[in-house]
Design a protein that fits this description.
Helix content: 40-55%
Order of helices and strands: EHEEEHEEHEHEHHEHH
Radius of gyration: 18 Å
Low-confidence stretches: none
Largest sheet: 5 strands, parallel
Bound molecules: guanosine-5'-monophosphate
């Protein structure tokens, strides 16, 4: 059995990562979206264990010390981290796992898991990004300004990724990501066992 693909999706606040990831899961329910731990407060409608595991700073720091994270980072003054065990178990079981994480975390995964697939989601324009963040209405003006400054810095990091996907429409962005996943699964480097088994079968 092929191990699953680890698909890392980053992009600035307002690129639509959450919406695109939901669209991926709706159309392909066998994908798994990793649930991160965070020290930030839940927003209205967010559920513990579904959107994030909401934990205290102490608990998060204990998890760091115990080596429980595949990667973690401090984003907008809060910790966010990917629980290692769950991800590894899913990959070993052949499931494709999506990590929706920031570029600092993605860089860590690029080092520890280079066979991952690294996708950067871009907004169609700066004006659209600004309006998406403003219309979301969940951020104070102070946070909004922080997110816009961070967005510019994050976009500059897209060069380190394998793919860029412009989120001009959610179904289009979703289908571009499916195309990436399909092509990645067909890479020779991921199919040596299949090729060898077939060559041996033909030889018999
Ligand atoms: P938000 O607070 O809007 O849910 O997320 C803020 C940022 O943290 C987003 O860029 C999101 O992708 C990132 N993030 C969420 N979970 C993780 C994680 O486990 N690790 C890292 N490095 N970033 C994360």
């Amino acid at each position: 059995m092929q191990t699953g693909l680890l698909i890392v999706i980053s992009g600035p606040s307002g690129a639509g990562k959450g919406t695109v990831c939901q669209a991926l899961l709706e159309k392909k329910p066998d994908l798994v979206l990793s649930v991160s731990k965070t020290t930030r407060q839940p927003r209205a409608g967010e559920q513990d264990g579904v959107n994030y595991f909401f934990v205290s700073r102490e608990e998060f720091e204990q998890s760091i010390a115990a080596g429980e994270f595949l990667e973690y980072a401090c984003v907008y003054d809060h910790y966010y981290g990917t629980p290692r065990k769950t991800v590894e178990k899913m990959l070993a079981a052949g499931r494709d796992v999506i990590l929706e994480i920031d570029p600092q975390g993605a860089q860590q995964v690029m080092h520890t898991y280079p066979e991952g697939v690294f996708i950067f989601l871009l907004p169609p324009s700066g004006a659209e990004l600004r309006s998406r963040i403003t219309n979301r209405g969940t951020e104070s003006m102070d946070n909004l300004a922080k997110r816009l400054t961070a967005a510019a810095l994050e976009i500059a990091q897209a060069h380190q990724y394998d793919y860029v996907v412009v989120n001009d429409s959610v179904p289009a962005a979703r289908d571009r990501i499916f195309a990436i996943i399909m092509a990645e699964k067909l890479r020779v480097s991921r199919n040596h066992n299949l090729i060898q088994a077939l060559a041996e079968e033909v030889k018999k």
